[in-house]
Specification:
The complex is a heterodimer of chains A (262) and B (438). With 262 residues, chain A is α/β, with parallel strands linked by helices. Chain A has 7 helices and 12 strands. Chain A has one domain: Rossmann fold, CATH 3.40.50. Chain A is globular. The termini of chain A are far apart. Chain B has 2 domains: 277 residues, no CATH class; 54 residues, no CATH class. Classes of the chains: A alpha/beta (262), B alpha/beta (438). Chain B: It comes from Nitrosospira multiformis.
């Protein structure tokens, strides 16, 4: 929801980033305020997933230019774990499986780390069990997912639910959902997006990175941005997503600016 | 016992000097077995890194030490031992520096388990000679193994388990071998026999009360009868100054099953040889191992699985985690003999290097002489997965916590296979603490 007096959560200016020396992001500008939902759309290779990973601090991506302020602080001064503790959350496109680490142990460790960061009480295993079971209801998750290894043997949909469960536990200020809709059937999509909607409030913000419009039928964005060639080339309201759905991406044309390095 | 075998070998000399002269047994075959072993021990030399089987394991620190026989074991406080007790195990044999401690033990007869024999070998050998003779010294070959030869030459005491035909023992048997004195050499000898159709879980547990320098030279022989099942858990948490040499030889009869989980955490230098013979059709073995070492520790595991007959199955997962400047070695031999058709074997060696100074050598070795077999094997040596680390850090976990958690998880896959809940829990805590120290 757009409010006139909302605080700025994220301010991205001219962000450039590379993988293995190949520049992927070529000057991204974006301002996200509290209470807002932003959708970033684009074809494969447009740079939208790179953008998500750069914000979370993945070491494979080198920031080569520009700046990102998160609640006024230089995001790139923070290690990935410090970003998480400050309130940045990335729901992974491909959540990794970690056999041998029980999901409940992992979730509790993460939850308690953020609780202590925020000066709040940590929960012991029994208290946490009750707490997390409540949160799981939001995502219609079977409690036996707590006893398994992190994402181990989970279906695609179960992994995505587990991601949003973590979002529910960690209560981030900024949640970046990287293709959370991919691999979900229609029921799972409804459950996952319903969960996200319940977690959205006036104090946090959400960036949805997606290829398709269909998730936006469930989570209504305030802004839709189209990324192409490592830049945001068009910004509009939710109707822009419908345009993209019917017309595709080609009508947006080629890059309008010459590469910065040329 | 003849002293002529010591000749030029100072290490052997130190081991043998002052060893109590073992009294002759009334059993002629037993005396003959020891005499044969003395003979072989005299001909064998301490292996060096020039021996293929020992190329990564330099025993010269062991050769430089001198060892004595254990003094009369100080009366151990029950409290010292209780620390190592395993709640599920109603039957327990305790050995201190190689000596049987009846007052700390709960042998089977006290539980009134009819026909089940769990006691110390030396007290039971005469009465049970008929059951023991076909097995003792039959599997742990000492012709070219100095340590097995020495153990057999000194063969005196250890744990004896005989599970009678058709019996399923519902409590694990805990064989607890405690080291308390410095500069002591002990040679425990265990024999586990599961008669046809029987079932038992045995925990062979090497622990230390302190960080002393000592040497344990253990030999265990296991006979699994027709349709019998043995689950064998071996935990080595010796002093990190100690030397641990272990030889275990297993023979499986028709349609029997042997499951083994071995965990090596202690000792400055440890070597464990596990030789499993699938000696009859339809037998199956599952052999898992974990070595978790640090500092200047060396842990060497040599296993061999011998598919001697058709229609047998073997599974093996061995993991090493080396930190500090530790060195882990795994050599896993799978032999499929001519005629052992329809063999189904899978072996995996997975290794985690946590420090640039640490080292892991792994060598899967397949020798196949049959043509209708399914054999899979693989080995990996790696560091912690950067994507897994990133995932954990992206949830706020510190780099150290993330590393510890992943290291723990890597080892926990093996520990999880231990069928004794309280031991599993305790080892998991130990592993977690050991990882956190690093």
């Amino acid at each position: 929801m757009i409010h006139q007096d909302s605080k700025t959560i994220l301010e991205v200016s001219g962000l450039q980033a590379a993988v293995d020396g190949v520049e992927i992001l070529k000057g991204v500008d974006l301002i996200v305020k509290s209470g807002e939902v932003h959708a970033i759309m684009g074809t494969n290779g447009s740079g939208k997933s790179t953008f998500a990973k750069v914000l979370a601090g993945h070491s494979a991506y080198q920031v080569t230019g520009g700046s990102v302020l998160f609640e006024g602080q230089n995001l790139f001064d923070l290690e990935p774990e410090e970003r998480a503790r400050a309130g940045v959350f990335l729901a992974f496109q491909y959540p990794i499986e970690i056999p041998g680490v029980s999901n409940s142990h992992f979730l509790r460790l993460a939850y308690n780390t953020l609780q202590s960061q925020r000066g709040k009480d940590e929960l012991d295993p029994l208290e946490f069990e009750d707490f997390v079971r409540e949160k799981m209801k939001l995502l219609e998750m079977n409690p036996n997912f707590l006893d398994r290894g992190v994402n181990e043997g989970f279906s695609g949909g179960e992994k995505k639910r587990n991601e949003i469960l973590q979002m529910a536990l960690l209560e981030p200020r900024l949640a970046i959902l990287d293709e959370t809709d991919s691999g979900l059937d229609i029921d799972a999509l409804r459950i996952v997006t319903n969960g996200v909607n319940k977690l959205a409030n006036k104090d946090n913000a959400i960036i949805l990175v997606t290829h398709y419009q269909r998730m936006l039928n469930y989570i209504e964005p305030d802004y839709v941005h189209v990324m192409r060639g490592g830049r945001i080339v068009k910004t509009g309201g939710k109707e822009l997503a419908l345009d993209l759905e019917t017309r595709g991406y080609d009508w947006l044309g080629v890059e309008r600016r010459a590469p910065a390095s040329a | 016992m003849s002293m002529s075998l010591v000749n030029s070998n100072t290490y052997l000399e130190s081991l043998l000097q002052g060893q109590p002269r073992l009294p002759a047994s009334p059993l002629a075959w037993f005396n003959q077995l020891r005499a044969n072993a003395v003979d072989h021990a005299g001909r064998l030399k301490l292996p060096t890194t020039r021996d293929e089987e020992w190329r990564f394991t330099d025993l010269s620190p062991l050769a430089r030490q001198s060892f004595q026989p254990a003094r009369a074991a100080a009366a151990q406080q029950a409290a010292d031992v209780e620390h190592f007790s395993v709640a599920e195990a109603a039957i327990r044999l305790v050995f201190v520096d190689g000596k049987y401690m009846p007052q700390l033990s709960t042998p089977a007869e006290r539980l009134g388990n009819r026909g089940l024999i769990v006691t110390n070998l030396s007290s039971a050998i005469t009465a049970n000679a008929e059951a023991i003779e076909p097995h003792l010294g039959q599997y742990a070959r000492f012709e070219d193994n100095l340590f097995a030869a020495l153990n057999t030459a000194f063969l005196h005491d250890g744990a004896l388990v005989i599970v009678p035909r058709g019996a399923a023992i519902d409590t694990p048997v805990h064989v607890l071998l405690i080291a308390t004195q410095p500069e002591v050499a002990s040679h425990p000898r265990c024999l586990f026999i599961a008669e046809a159709g029987s079932e038992v879980t045995i925990l062979e547990d090497y622990v230390s009360l302190n960080e002393a320098v000592y040497v344990t030279n253990a030999v265990t022989e296991i006979a699994v009868g027709d349709n019998a099942r043995i689950s064998h858990i071996r935990v080595q948490r010796d002093s990190t100054e100690a030397f641990h040499i272990g030889n275990c030889a297993v023979s499986l009869a028709h349609a029997s099953r042997y499951r083994s989980v071995s965990v090596a955490l202690g000792a400055r230098i440890s070597r464990y040889d596990l030789n499993t013979g699938l000696d009859a059709e339809d037998a199956e073995c599952v052999i898992d191992g974990l070595a978790l070492i640090n500092g200047r520790q060396l842990a060497d595991t040599h296993s061999s699985i011998d598919h001697a007959k058709p229609n047998c199955t073997s599974r093996q997962l061995h993991k090493c985690i080396a930190d500090g400047s530790a060195h882990a070695v795994f050599n896993g031999k799978i032999m499929v003999r001519a005629g052992a058709q329809n063999t189904d074997s899978a072996q995996s060696s997975r290794n985690l290097l946590l420090n640039a100074k640490a080292r892991i050598d792994t060598k899967p070795q397949l020798e196949i002489f049959a043509n209708d077999v399914k054999c899979a094997h693989g080995a990996t040596v790696g560091q912690l997965d950067s994507e897994e680390l990133f995932y954990l850090k992206s949830r706020g976990l510190s780099g150290v916590t993330a590393r510890n958690l992943l290291t723990y998880a890597f080892g926990a896959e093996i520990i999880d296979r231990i069928p004794i809940a309280s031991l599993k829990y305790r080892l998991e805590q130990t592993v977690l603490e050991q990882i956190k120290k690093n």
